[in-house]
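Sequence in, structure out.
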Amino acid sequence: MDSNLGNNMDMMPQQEPQQFIPQEQDPKAQKVRLKKRFVSGILVGCMVSLFILAGIYVFWGFMYGFGSPFGIGAGSAADSGELLNDETLGKIEALEDVIDTYYYKTDVDKEEEAVGMYKGLMDSLGDPYSVYYTEEELNDLMTDTAGIYYGIGAYVSLDEDMNLPRISGVMPGTPAERAELMTDDIIYEVDKESTQGLKLDEVVSLIKGPEGTTVHLTLLRGSKMEEIEVDVERSAVEVPTVNTKLLGEKENIGYLQITEFDDITPDQFTEGMAELRESNIEGLIIDLRSNPGGSLQAVCDIARQILPKGIIVYTVDRNGEREDYTCDGAHEIDIPVVVLVNQYSASASEILSGAIKDYKLGKLVGMTTFGKGIVQRVFDLKDGTAVKLTVSNYYTPNGNNIHGIGIEPDVEVEYDADAYAKDKTDNQLDKAVEVMNDLLDK
């Protein structure tokens, strides 16, 4: 479970970590005093400000000014104004003095104060996908993208109508499945702590924990919001990001579910397709429902096993620089395709489904997708921490910007959660099989 974690995993190109280059120290006495207040054995910065320069260089200021070494792109300090000027540094020092003098607790953690400022700086961008990661959070992120973590084996996303986390998928063979958690269950409380108003990564952190420990969940289920109490024992979960089976009366339809796009997913996809091909399938249903996305590299590697020659997706950064991700068409699929999507299919899921739709390679069935048409990149701060920053928009092969809009299915079908809770009837999958049979009959 990730906020990708629980798996609201954001799309991140797999690139080399970006280096942060400190500028010369400002000798002003006020900055020196402030620096000393935040040093306790190790260096704790007071604030981090990031600029992406020409898509490669990121400059890190610790009580220093900021500027572009090229005089272009990000702009200079003289043009845009310094974040860490005398006024802001003075206000930070004044705030700390007030806290040190009047705050009712005396055991304030200075390092936690600094972390709060770093996170606050990223929050000020108003972009939920641009975040600061502590060392622990970064390790969790890297573990998740590798495909192994310690938790219960459920995907979690945010229900925007209720502003509460919901289970968007349950991994087979995991504690979540054994505890009979269900897709669309609302997570109302974790260990009796309300999840109302918590960020997704905060909820996921509450649910994750050491192997063998137990988490108590209070769930709201179905249209009647029935309250369910359940204890789930945490364990090591090796994420099976691809699942396959045969469908149809003749078992001639291959079903391939991709739950997220991790580093391990392309190989799992290749193996899954090989197994289905051995069964002489005549059509393929790709299930991307509630897939929160993941690695841009992973989804492109998978797309190259399906798409014709051409563009998979392209990105455009703040300077209008375009980067194309292409397919040579050597492995274009030669059987009918149906793609299942819903309102929680996001990011990398939309890249794959959008490309399939643009090339008229298959039919989309389900609900309009989430609409996350932006790309994030992780920048290493070289001290065990990092920031994830939105760096570009992406576009489908036909030039569609789907951010905040999503991709409409060819056949719209709303999911019947009550029917599934009653007897495991998946009405969207049933419709996908129906659409596939129509394609095979043509």
